[in-house]
Amino acid sequence: MSFIKSGRGNDQLLLDGFRYRRDRLVWRCIKDRCKGRARYDENTFKMYWDHICQVPNPDEIEKAVYNYEVRKKAEQSHDLPRLIIQETRLKLSSDAAITIRQYSASTRVVQRIRRDKNIPTEPKTFADVIISNNFQNTVANQNFLLYDNNDHRRRLLIFASKEQLDFLNCCESWHCDGTCAVASNLFEQMYSIYDSVRGKTLPLVYSFFPNKNQETYEELFRIIKQHVERKPKYMTIDFEKTAENGFGALYPECAISGCFFSFQAISSIECSLYYIKSIISFLIGVALERRIHSE
Predict the structure, then answer these.
(1) What are the E-state strand segments in 150-254?
(2) What mean pLDDT comes out for the span 148-170?
(3) pTM summary value
C-alpha cells in the first residue's frame, strides 16, 4: 500500500494491484464504471467492494509509480532528463518496462513540467543564485529565508522559520552536522542544526556553505545568536575543527563534543587504511623475499 500523485496532482491510493482516487470519505477505483472501493478501517486500508473492471495488474501499478517518480524528480532536482529516466527505469521489472512511455516521450514530460512550473536552471555562479518568493516562505506563509549575505564570492544562505527558531530557543543542547551529498555544485555543504522536539530529532536550521572556513561557521552562529536568545550548554559536531573554533568563538562557555556516528565513520576509514597499508607491506615483503631467494 502506498500513495502517489496523479498527473493533475491529486492523491491516488495503490492497494493490492489497483489504483484508487479519493471520493469524500472513501477511495474509489480510477476506472469510471468500476464499483471497486476501499476505505481506512482499523488502522489499515481495506477493499470493501469488489472490482469489475479488471484483475489486479502489478505492471500498471509500476507504470503509475514510474510516471509519478519522473514527475517528482523533474520538479525537485536539476538532474538531466536522461538521468532521471534511467534511474527511475532501474526500479521497474522487465514486464513493466515494456509498458512505459518511450524515452523521448518521458524526456518531453520532464521538460514540460519544468517549463510549466517555471523551475530555474541550475546556477553557474553565486551571482546566478536567485531565491524566488515561493522558496523564501514556508507553506504556512512564515518567513523561511533567514539570511542571505549576497556575497558573490562566498554566498551563505540560512533557512529557518520563526517556529523552528522558537524550538531551538527552548533547547540546551544542539546537534550540528554537515553533508555534501545534497549541496549543489556551487556550495561546499549543507550544514544543519538539529534538536529534540516532542521526542523526535528534527532539523531546525539549514544553511548552505560556500566553504568550510572558520569565518563561515562564525557567520552562521552569529546570525543564529541574533535570533535565539538562549545559549546552548552542550553541542555535538562532526569533528570539523573549523566548526569547533567558529562555535567556540560565539559560545565559549558551551561544552563541545564529537558526534559518535562521525567518529565511527572516521574510525572505519582509518581501520581500512591501516589494513590496506598492512596488506601492501606484506605483499612487498613477499616479493622482496622471493627476489632474494631467486638471486
Answers:
(1) 157-159, 173-179, 189-197, 200-209, 234-237
(2) 94
(3) 0.59
Q: How many CB atoms lie within 10 A of CB 291?
A: 9
214 backbone dihedrals φ, ψ, rounded to 5°: -60, -40
In the three-class reduction of DSSP (H, G, I as helix; E, B as strand; rest coil), residue 191 is classed as: strand
Domain containing 75 equals: 59-119
Q: Are residues 133 and 246 in the same domain?
A: yes
6-51: per-residue pLDDT in tens?
Answer: 888 888 888 888 888 888 888 888 888 888 888 887 778 888 888 8
Q: What confidence tier does 260 reach under pLDDT thresholds 50, 70, 90? A: very low
CA–CA separation, 101 and 201 (whole Å): 41
Question: Residue 84: which of 116, 124, 113 has the closest Cα?
Answer: 113
Cell numbers standing for residue 121: 536552471
* CA dihedral of residues 93, 97, 99, 101 (deg, nearest 10): 140
Could you tell me the CATH number of the domain that includes residue 232?
3.30.420
State the DSSP code for 228: -
Which strand (E) or helix (H) includes residue 19? strand 18-23
**Could you identify the residue written with the cell 589494513?**
275
Contacts of 132 (CB under 8 A, 6+ apart): 120
Pairwise CA distance, residues 171 & 166, whole Å: 9
Give the span between the Cα atoms of 217 and 244, in whole angstroms: 9
Between CA 194 and CA 175 the distance in angstroms is 5
State the cell numbers at 159. Answer: 533557512
As to burial, measured by CB atoms within 10 angstroms (0-12 exposed, 13-18 middle, 19+ buried), residue 232 is buried
Which residues, in sequence order, are CB contacts of 91 under 8 Å at separation 6+?
A: 65, 66, 69
28: β partners = 21, 37
Which residue in 123, 121, 110 sits closest to 70, CA to CA? 110
User: Are 132 and 249 in the same domain?
Assistant: yes
